[in-house]
Amino acid sequence: MTPAVFYALTGLGLFVLGLYALIVHAHLLRKILAFNVMGSGVFLVLAGLAGRTASGIPDPVPHAMVITGIVVAVAATALALSLMLRVAGATGRVRLPDEHER
Amino acid sequence: MDTAVLVQSGLTAPILLPLIGALLAFVMRRWATPIGLLSVVALLGSVILQVPSLFADGPQRLAVGGWGAPLGVDLYADGLSVAMLLMTAVVGLGISLYAAAYFRDTPARTQAFWPLWLLLLTALNALFLSADIFNLYVTLEILGLSAVALTAIVGGADALVGAMRYLLVSLLGSLAYLLGVALLYHAYGTVDIALLAERIAAEPATWAAMGLMSAGLMLKTALFPLHFWLPPAHASAAAPVSAALSALVVKGSFYLLVRFWVELFGEIAGGVATLLGLLGAAAVLWGSIQALIQTRLKLLIAYSTVAQIGYLFLAFPLAVGTGIMAWSGVLYLALSHALAKAAMFLVAGNLLRFGGHDRIADLDRVVQRLPLSMAAFALAGVSIVGLPPSGGFIGKWLLLQSALTEGRWGWAIVIVLGGVMAAAYVFKVVGHAFTESENPHQAQPVPATMEWVAFALAAAAVLMGLIVSQPLGLLEIGNPFGIQTEGAAP
Asked: Percent of chain A beyond pLDDT 70?
């Protein structure tokens, strides 16, 4: 197994772990953290699988994508956190109500 | 030289105009409304100017900054993208005029609305014009984040919880999509759709990417059974926001599904088309039943969106045989649904403003008191049901025809049954509008603009049924449905 494939598989593992946590945990902060874990997994796949040229230098395009992705993730996390605070303020709880409770 | 500059500004204007407007509206808060209205009028003008050159010269491609496909981001406009741009600009102008009146008495919400709304238009237009699957990820995220923020504008527990759920779903969809992009880039070394179409082959990496990207986009389009987040988010938002979400935002991710399906995955998908069609059929039936049993108008309209999204997915299995007819039908349906559904949500906003509630049973003779709004609702209903002569009729007719020429009776029955149930839930509302309710209420005045905008959008949805050849001609420019890839052959 080459290091590149190892990183990519680790990335996939992080993605799946994050997805599991997202579904299982009710607390919104944990859900938001789960997204960040999933996002890191995708970035690891992108960076890990970046093609290498003959001289061994990795392809820079996936790295540019990862940087863009990080910017997007920061913005999304900021929105999610502030929305979480507003939800907590309005409902008194830091989790989403079930459909049946309403 | 001059024409090159013109082409360049023509393709970038639909992205730059609302973006500049959003920044100005954010900085000059007191002028947010006039800045917003001006940007949207300019946006509509720039898209309309695009149409003649498209008819004359065919599809246009622009390498932004002169970098070119493998490294740079390309913009691409064919008939399909320009039709979507036109839909966004027309419905967007209606929603903007309505919002200017709707938010007039709440300056804080006015100032929050305009920058986000203009950003949403920027993201949609960029999505329709991008020819690069990574750039599409960025536009999808801007679209999702601005839509979520708009949903939360009204405050209140319902809207905030709806927005939070929407955000979680939207992020999950984008991440699945991005993982698909990573796999495609690794396998084929490009993110440009045209280059991918040449290189793509039936192999495990492609199948995995297809699954991840389709699942992410289906989640964002709210295809049954991934629709659970849509009714609470769409029903709890402010009226102009609900209209934008149901009419335009879900079409963004649907447009991508069609694009990818036609240009990338169509030949290697196998039985997945049938699966998408079955989910669509389930959405038509389930969404219509749910709409029928709702007691609140906004929830009824939101479940009607779930059902109409189902119609859009019926094209995938039908297109395998009859290609162009099924795709044109479904896109016609998408365009007229945008007009009709925006009109319906705006009418719901009028009724909510008028009576202070949206309980269908207590509508209390609104036909006599808000005749224009109810006329708008009925006209929009004509198109949603699919009665002639309306845009919805043409779309459903093309779908039905492609089902019948193939002898696929199952799909035809679903198409007709969905129409009958749509008629039932539209008449349920109209019926209560005529009768006196048991709890009469204090009525509030509704600004005339809010009534006329809803009426104009609904009338446009019906007019779409009378001018058929021009929209269909526009959709076929660049032959978006004829492009077949050769890479999948061996």
From this structure: 91
Indicate whether B218 belongs to any domain: no
Q: What ipTM does this complex have? A: 0.94
Quickly state the pLDDT bin for B432 (edges 50, 70, 90).
confident
Query: Is B298 a member of any domain?
Result: yes
| Residue B424 CB-half CA count within 13 A | 15
Interface of B with A in 163-202 (CB under 8 A): 163-165, 167-168, 171-172, 175, 178-179, 181-183, 185-186, 189, 191
- The percent of chain B in helix, strand and coil, each rounded to the nearest 5, is 80, 5, 20
To probe the interface with A, which of B158, B185, B191, B296 has the most A CB atoms within 10 Å?
B185
CB B296 within 8 A of CB B426: no
Residue B363 lies in a domain: yes
Q: Give the domain extent around B348.
A: 278-490
Class of domain A3-93: mainly alpha
Tally of domains in chain B: 1
Output the CA torsion B60→B66→B72→B73 (10° steps).
Answer: -40
Instruction: Tell me the helix, strand and coil percentages in chain A, rounded to 5.
Output: 75, 5, 20
Residue B449 lies in a domain: yes
One-letter amino acid at B247 equals A
